[in-house]
Amino acid sequence: RHPKMEIYIMAYCMAGTLILPYLARRAEELLAAGKPMDIKKVVLMASPMKFDDEESGHGPMRALIRNNYDADLMREFFGSVNIPQHVIEAGMNDIQPGVQYNVVVGFYGRAEKLEHIRDAAPFLYWLTHGTKFPVLAHRQWIEKFFLENQLYEGTYCLPSSNPALDGKPVNMDILSEAGVCLFEYRGTRDVIAPPGSCVANEKWGKVGCGNIGFTSSALNRTIEKNVGHIFVVSRKHLSEFLEMVREFYNAKI
To answer: Of 24, 37, 68, 198, which shows the fewest CB atoms inside 10 Å?
Structure first.
């Protein structure tokens, strides 16, 4: 409908993890065909990119997976269906003991104000009703990202219409060559996507995009706040975030 308009990306949590290699492969294909990259700005919200036992903060979850995750058993139980939310919740409770109790107590502790109920009730409904996880996607997420750290290590492969790229590892560094700017928003209290894992700006993307709020020189844009993974349920935090995103999208590259 609007072929001449710019395309912007905004992705939350694992959606950001997954979209970035697809954008890098898109850049590889376009540049190989002599065409410019058509998506130049990406906003990542608490999107983990690095999975190791040290700096990333994912050590406890990786240990839990290594000790308790059985791919054959998961395939036997859920081979042709989605993985129920209870399986995901079990892992969350292991790395964050009492998390469900704390969330509910926090909700009812603020429930005397109507605006707080309006902010948090939709999220609480989503949290308690859960989201099913497609079994193949779950297995690949666990194996390729969490355990093998393929994205950060540069070994993550994708298909391509270009035979020279088909099935080959994605060149994530091409995001910089293609002029893609990254905006990263991460929280110091986030245990699902710890700040040490949300490091896309420190590794990829275009340097010098009118940087603001960066945590070191030569980053795209990194905003780090004292928030958790679910900051989006706060109208105040969300409006502040969206204002920063608007400025990023409107800034000239």
So the answer is: 68
β-pairing, 133-134 vs 82-83, is antiparallel
- Sequence-distant contacts of 208-214: CB under 8 A, at least 24 apart: 209/181, 209/251, 209/253, 210/251, 210/252, 210/253, 213/244
- Position of tokens 């960066």? 214
pLDDT in tens, 39-94: 999 999 999 999 999 999 999 889 989 998 888 888 888 888 888 877 777 777 77
Residue 95 to residue 79: CA distance in whole angstroms: 26
Amino acid 201 reads N
